[in-house]
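Support reply, case 0932

Customer input (verbatim):
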Amino acid sequence: MNIFKLKYCHEDTQTSASAPDLKCGCFLSSFRYWSFKCFQRFFNVTSARKKYFHVQIDNINEYLATGTSFRALAFSFRMGKTTVADIVYATCSAIWQQLVEVHMARPTQEDFKNIANDYYRLWQFPMCLGSIDGKHCRMKCPAKSGSSFYNYKQYFSIILQGVADANKRFISIEVGGKGKQSDGGTFHYSTLNSLMENGGLHIPPPDNLPGTTLESPYVFLGDEAYPLKIHLMRPFPSRNLNDKNEYFNKRLSRARKCIECAFGILYAKWRIFSKPIETNVEHACLIIKTACLLHNVIRDLEGNDCNSQNYDTNLTPGAHYADLNRRNNSSSQAARNIRNQFANYFWDRKI
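Our regenerated output:
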């Protein structure tokens, strides 16, 4: 058993809920995964059940950060497998309920403007509200699901759709798409698309492109799998590309790397994603959401560059960055005009 898994947190200590001790054994077992600031935030969320706090934090650390199975955790803690699973689910639920409105709240118009400013400052792409992509998360075959969760990479998966800001934080996630779905199909049925279509996303009104009098809407950035919409830009088709359109594709791809890097950091930090998640679909969604939320918590408390240089975002194809199904998507003339305007803007202002 790991020598750092010393259960020094007292069940009846009245001060522990507000002042976690650096010498506390459950902090010693956690220092490998996050700083004391993050530990304290986690402590404040879970310490309502002080009797089980040391078990909660050790279980969730080992499960998410190493991918240790429930069976192995049960043996380590001398507990039943079902008890360990229930503790992990309850802890994930508590983290999500209490921290989502702090670290992954739905952006307001002012928030979106700040995100757009960051994208322009860091990635030189104006009017950008976030980059979007989908991710196959491995899982065991759900009961009575047939082949609906079996993806074209030949494993069972559930799809995580994420939107990242310029600092590689998740500003929106949706989990639950079946592995058989395409990336564009997942987006089509997503809440994000619905809010985008009915005006419920708090997107700021159109504004002038920097240094011009050309009015443009604010947009999200996707790859070829996504449809071209007024508020969603995708690359020009690769066939018959002229120099201007190819340059636009490069600029879009450069800014869109934020979501790819966010996924890379997420997968490197939480090794639960390196193997199939062995739960039902409902609990798998909860675990994936919690890992994404903890990704934001760590970046918010430790800074945007918190050890991200140590994470390999060029992960092995078929393991972490499995490409989702690609398909052509029809688009409106208005959306094509907006993309052409961006292409002209970038062509006149090469970097």
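We compared this against your earlier run and they match. Two observations from our side: Strands lie at 128-138, 157-164, 170-178, 207-208, 215-216, 219-221, 232-233. Residues 109-258+304-348 form one domain. Please reopen the case if you see a mismatch on your end.
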